[in-house]
Each structure stands twice: as C-alpha cells, then as structure tokens.
Design a protein that fits this description.
By secondary structure, this protein is α/β, with parallel strands linked by helices. It is 38% helix and 19% strand. It is built from 15 helices and 20 strands. The chain has helices spanning 51-67, 75-91, 93-104, 108-127, 165-179, 193-205, 219-228, 241-251, 276-288, 308-321, 340-356, 387-390, 406-413, 429-438, 471-476, and strands at 17-19, 22-24, 31-35, 42-47, 137-138, 144-152, 155-159, 182-186, 212-214, 234-238, 257-261, 267-270, 300-304, 359-362, 377-380, 397-403, 421-425, 443-446, 465-466, 479-487. Bound molecules: 1,4-dihydronicotinamide adenine dinucleotide and magnesium ion (MG).
Length: 489
Amino acid sequence: MATAEIVDRPTIRQTQCFIGGEWIPAESGNTFETIHPATGEVIAQVAEGDEADVNKAVTAARKAFDEGPWRQMDARERGEIMHRLADLIEAEMEELAALETLDNGKPISDSLAADLPLTIDCLRYYAGYADKIHGQTIPVRGNYFTYTKKEPVGVVGQIIPWNFPMLMVAWKWGPALAAGCTIVMKPAEQTPLTCLRMARLAQKAGIPDGVINVVPGFGPTAGAAIVKHPGIDKVAFTGEYKTAQTIMADASQTLKRLTFELGGKSPNVVFNDADLDAAAAGSHFGLYFNQGQCCCAGSRLFVQEDVHDEFVAKLVAMNQTRVVGDPFDKATQQGPQVDQAQFDKILKYIDIGKNEGAQCLTGGARHGEEGFFIEPTLFDGVTDQMQIATDEIFGPVMSILTFKDTEDLIQRANNTFYGLAAAVWSRDIGKAHLLADRVRAGTVWVNCYDVFDAAAPFGGFKMSGIGRELGEEGLKNYLEIKTVTVALD
Ligand code: NAI
Ligand code: MG
C-alpha cells in the first residue's frame, strides 16, 4: 500500500449557542457530547439549547427582521456580503473540511471534493439572486395601477440533518439570506460543529447580528420549540418523513409555511443496452457515496435480466476493492456511519435481508473493532416485498432486483410512497426519456447519478417532500407576494 496521507485534526472553536451575534451557553447550563464516529471518542461538549434558548433566538431574529438591517439593506450589498461569506469559507476550506470529517466521519477526500465546493457554490449562486428579486406590473380592469412585490417571508426556522451538515446549512441559508429573511437554525445533534463555525464566518463577513442565530440541541426540545413558536413564519426541514409528520402537526396551530426534503427509496434502472461499465461505476457511487447516507441513494437497483450476471460481477469487484477506514486518510473511500443509532439500524436491516432470503454477495457485517464502520454490502435476488426493498436503510447496503420488460419495470419502480429521485442507464434515448417521463420522482438522472447543482431544483414527489430546494424554485419558498393597487384618479 502507498504511504498514507493523513490530514491533521482541526481545532474546535465554537460550541455555544449563537444568538443575536453573541456566543452564549444554554440557559439550562446543559451540554451534550458530540463524537468522532471513527473512534466513538467525545470531541466536544456543545451547548444544549431548548425552548428558553429558542425563545431568545426568535426575539433576536424578529428584531433583526422587523427593524430591518438585512432586508432593508441595498439588495446588491446583501449579495456582496453573501459573496464575502463564500470567500471566507473558501479561505478556510481545509479546516472546515477537516472539521466536517471529525464530526460526521465522512472521508476527508469527500469533504474536500464535494461538501466544501458545493457549499461555496450554493452561497455564491444565491448571492447573485439578492438584487434580482422583483415583482410584476399587472393590467387590471378600471383605472388602477397594480403591481406585485416579493418580500421576505419573515423569520425562518431551519432544521437540518447530519449527513451533509455544511451543505445543508448552505441550502438553507442561501435562499433565506438572498430573500432578506432572518434565521433560527438548529443543526443536527450529531453534527453541530461546522454550522457553528459558519455562523462565526457569517458574522465576520458582515451579516448583521440577529440575522443568523444557531441553537444546537435535540429535536423534541429545541426543534419542536422552533416549530411551535408563533414568532417564526416558516419552517424548512430536511430529515425523516416521520419527523416531518410531527412537524406538520406541531406547525398547524400557527399555520406556518412548511417545506420538507425527506428520504427516498430511489429506483436506479440498468437496461441491457447500457454502457455497463459506466452504469456499474455510477450505481456504485449512487449508493455507497457518503457511506450510503444520502436521501437520494439509488437503493433499489433494477437490472435487466439478460445482463444481470455480468453487471453484478462488476459491482462485486468494486465492493471488494473499496477502501474503508480512517476518514482522515486521503485514500479512504468509505468512513464510519454517523452514530450508534444509524449503525444499529443498518446492521438490523442486513440481518432482515439475510432472513428474507436475499443473497449477501459482499459485506454483511461491521468493519473493524471500533467506530461505526460497516462493510460495503450487496444483496442480490431481492424481491419487491422484502423489507430491504421497501424501507430506507440509509447505509452502505445495495439491493439488486431484476426485471424483464419496461412496462412492468415502470410500475414496480413507482410502487413506493417515496418519490425523491430515479436514474436510468441506457443508450436508447427514447427508452431513457420514457422512463424520465413516467417515473414519479423529483429528480431523474440519465446515464449519471448524484449530479447536483445549485441552479437545479431538488425535492420530492409523494412522501419524499413538499416544495423544492435550490434554483429559483428554492428561493420562492422564502418569499411572500404582495399585491399593491393604486387608484389613478
Ligand atoms: P430526524 O428526521 O429525526 O432528524 C433530522 C433533524 O430533525 C435533526 O436536526 C433533529 O434534531 C430534528 N428533529 C427530530 N425530531 C424533531 C421534532 N420533533 N421537531 C423538530 N425537529 C426534530 O432523522 P434522524 O433521527 O437523524 O435519522 C433517522 C432516519 O431518517 C435515518 O436513518 C434516515 O433514514 C432518515 N434521514 C433522512 C435524511 C435526508 O437527507 N432526507 C437525513 C437524515 C436522516
Ligand atoms: Mg429522529
């Protein structure tokens, strides 16, 4: 093996609540541990915010919104400050990537190649929108002049998960800041550190105090307090659909605007006329990337019968050479799962798959003795009703299903309450477009997988979500339309 190139661990600087521009402990004085998933060691004690801290954060955000240093600012200047935040993140890219790897466990090469560049790009994309948000003039009957304005929706509560901690901050802050909203964010309890670091950089960039507030803590306490607070106008949430159901119920009293980006069980379809090497590489990436902890993971891999054996052999070979290990080693391709709960959930599903009679071709167990590592696992002979084919596993577990004809395949691909993403691999453009047309999913990739861009809307049909993030669609969720009518005589 080549000499390992191990990246240094970063210093942890921010661990308190960030409210009204100040770093303060939780009012209760409580803290919670955050760990490094490769070893399980505690790396920091973080302020455990709850309702009392959310109340303070909402007061600060409300003041910043109502008094308007951000939304009343010259819109072009707002964009320039957002660009400055992106520049500061870029300048600290190595340190932030290492902090993400420390808290989440993802390989440093992924943090550097994916999380950081996508985060920076998203903030720059929305920075460019800040001065391009405008309404219309509308011809109405009678002697009136009618126009619309697009105004920020207000104070937004943003609750994010742990699989792409920084990137989820950018997806949430980008459109909210461009629109002129103010923010109360709760990062995931597993991964609060990069969000807090970004709050520091936002302040350094010149975002006025109170515009961004971060309350670390747990879902049922800090998260629920955000959802129920009458001073919050909208909640944007990414996570599990069951949590979204609770949030929808909790938000009903105040009729908050809600956007949800939830999970999936995305079909990835390989036809017999596909470039099989490209399809195998893309399918491997589309499932195992980020330890399988992706909402859009291609976790139902439908392979056309007559190429099954050849295709599966390629997948097996890739799993056998996948480098699992220390996420701080630049050669590592797969790190640990984020925590004990996810680790246990995935191992439980692996057992279920074995008991359901699927053939485990690779992996099927934990990797190593410490940390939350799981071997790249491949199940063949999976059928539609098996639990490993219906439930979101959110780990490095791939299920192979076979199909014969296209009509039957489309019906099976859609036979799920999820509808986040899908992919098709084929050299026949008619077939590829037919599938793109018929599959009920918010994103369809043709001869590629996991291609994300800040300009391209992303979100789910059915129980995979409500609304879209990214692109112009993602901005709309942060705007209210005001209609003004003026009598002309
Ligand atoms: P979760 O949905 O419980 O957590 C996501 C965020 O919601 C966290 O910040 C959490 O503190 C917060 N939250 C939890 N309960 C809340 C409540 N009652 N009110 C307000 N906020 C609340 O997801 P969790 O438990 O981390 O993972 C469970 C499963 O969810 C995973 O195994 C995976 O299948 C799925 N998941 C999907 C994600 C996606 O990107 N769509 C991301 C994370 C998890
Ligand atoms: Mg949960």
